[in-house]
Amino acid sequence: MRDMHDVLERESARYAIRSGAFERMSRRRDRKQRNQRITATIVGLTVAIGIAVVGSVALRSEREPQPADETRIIREGEVLEFGDDGLVATDTTTGDQRTLARCQDCFFPFRKYSASLDGRWIAYSSITCHLSCGDEKRAGGIWVAGTAGRRILVGGSWRWAWSPTTDQLAFTGDSEDGTELALFDPASGDRTSVVTTRGGIPALAWSPDGSTIAYVANTRSEPSRSSVFVVRPGATPMRITEPSVLFSASSGWGTLEAMNGFDELAWSPDGTRLALSTTRDGLIVIPIDGSGERTVIDQHPASFAWSPDGRQIAYGDAGDVVIVPANGGTPVHIESDASSPIDRYLAERWIQARANWFLSFGGGIVWSPDGTLIAFSEGLDWKAVPVG
User: Domain span at residue 330?
Assistant: First the structure.
């Protein structure tokens, strides 16, 4: 009996040793698993926090866009248009509009308007009374506005153009000695005289590099005869055509009709030639070196546009688009059936990227920058035809 008791005690002691070892192993395993769970939890939390931070940044970047450049009255992605509320800046992505100028009492509030190339200023011409009113009642002129301050009345004319390189407005106005061509700096308010002619100046345009201004000047003794000049500010003007009758006698709207034709004075892209639309001689191209002019077509287009390479000129004719070589030649008609609708904002961005742009009474026409399309306005819409 005693022997059996001893055997049981020995076996119990051996089992206790094994059981303790097993418990220690179990505790080590439990600690390892617990540590793994803690590590996994920490890694998971770190990843989750990282995702949350990235997501927060992404959401914040969408909800909080960069503030608009408040030095620009026309911001990136906007075009300048005539809307129901006056002169407006239209966001070409959303269609939202900001009213920039109103002329509620004007008979013809925005006959002509454009923005400086950097979008910091706008200029527009207004007429406050019908042309049948007496001269003493007629009013209006050129106005310039920016992001701050009141609009500025520059002068009483509506012949003007922004420089393609600086915030300088070239404009004409009456003077004691005739008609003055001057520059206006909207930032400082300074006016600088360029030249004074004894007759009128019915058209002007900046060269592509912003160094030279071309203008048409009437002869005071013979108002029906005109010459084309080019001048660098601070230098003496150079006549590049002999005096000639460029305009037929107008009727009805009188001088407004005439000035609409002369608004289409445009430099070639390389700055070596001028194209001028006249009611008397049609569309003519004039070399700047004074070597003589060439009639491209014998009709007066309401609006026209140089091709980007300067080799051709496009204009509208009874719904068709016509392309003619800039040195003269046979016009090629592209019938309206070949046209297709185009986003009007795209076409207007093409126009407003040019120097001296504006939409004329007869509609707008413009080449795409790569020269593969010609867009033209049709009412409030735009269409385009392929070139090639």
Answer: 301-388
